[in-house]
Amino acid sequence: MAAEKMSLSKAINASLRTALESDPKVLIMGEDVGKLGGVFRVTDGLQKDFGEDRVIDTPLAESGIVGTAIGLALRGYRPVVEIQFDGFVFPAYDQIVTQLAKMHARSLGKVKMPVVVRIPYGGGIGAVEHHSESPEALFAHVAGLKVVSPANASDAYWMLQQAIGSDDPVIYFEPKRRYHDKSEVDTAAIPGPLHTARVARPGTDLTLAAYGPMVKVALDAAAAAAEEGKSIEVVDLRSMSPIDFDTVQRSVERTGRLVVVHEAPVFLGTGAEIAARITERCFYHLQAPVLRVGGFHSPYPPSRLEDEYLPGLDRVLDAVDRALAY
């Protein structure tokens, strides 16, 4: 099949369809994923084509959804569960952290846990409370979980394929405000490793590292900086656990400066770990301290104020200017 331009949400749908067609042990579970096709219509048409035994509308019980998926995985299935919104994952946090993440180690490697937990996350859609959270650092901190987030349709398709094929549990964060962004998807391509970062835009003066919804902001910032003669390299991290520090290190060794951007609060966020590791690895290459740009250490605000809360172009460019001023 030739490359096709599709939205990020359609790419996820296509990836789920491919997985269902390829392996009868793949199941999809979640609230309203079947008849409705999900609140974002990401699973639209899948129950109609594959039946209610494979695309399963569940009760409104996140802990039960994940707990059932763990049992199915023990029986040889590969469940893909959807948490309807980021803020709804916490009733399932116990199951994810104390059971899903630990089963492989607890069984001394004998038990595999091929479960994917899909979570639409982040803000920018004008939603109400509990619908715009960025809890990725909570899961990245848990040993035994893989945590990833695509920034474009091609990665959305391929990273989900790789997540479903993994024998370890994967938390798959979907940047919901990018659902309608379109890009080319080649479903016949050979993808790179799931946890490898990519250089989305080369540059020489400073490295901007981001993932998920913030990659587009980073690319826009690099384009704006280029108009002022600044050459910014953008690294799409793609994975928050494990993190591809080698790619970031190689970039920083070339540019001498690093700014890390994410929607989640800066305090104890993913950027803190990246800043610490790169400072250790690149101390003699750095020409400025590693700077971080993210949300504030406060509950996510009402939608009228989210533009003030979310890191946008101006805040990223301010950090770029501060780093370049050293």
Automatic annotation (TrEMBL):
**Cofactor(s) demanded:** thiamine diphosphate
Q: What is this protein called?
A: Pyruvate dehydrogenase E1 component subunit beta
Per the database record, which ranges form the Transketolase-like pyrimidine-binding domain?
6-181
State the EC number(s). 1.2.4.1
Query: EC top class, in one word?
Result: oxidoreductase
GO MF annotations, alphabetized:
magnesium ion binding; pyruvate dehydrogenase (acetyl-transferring) activity
The highest taxon in the source lineage is Bacteria
Q: What SUPFAM superfamilies does the database record attribute to this sequence?
A: Thiamin diphosphate-binding fold (THDP-binding) (SSF52518), TK C-terminal domain-like (SSF52922)
Keyword terms: Oxidoreductase, Pyruvate, Thiamine pyrophosphate
What's the short name of a Pfam family annotated to this entry? Answer: Transketolase_C
- Which CDD domains does this chain map to? TPP_PYR_E1-PDHc-beta_like
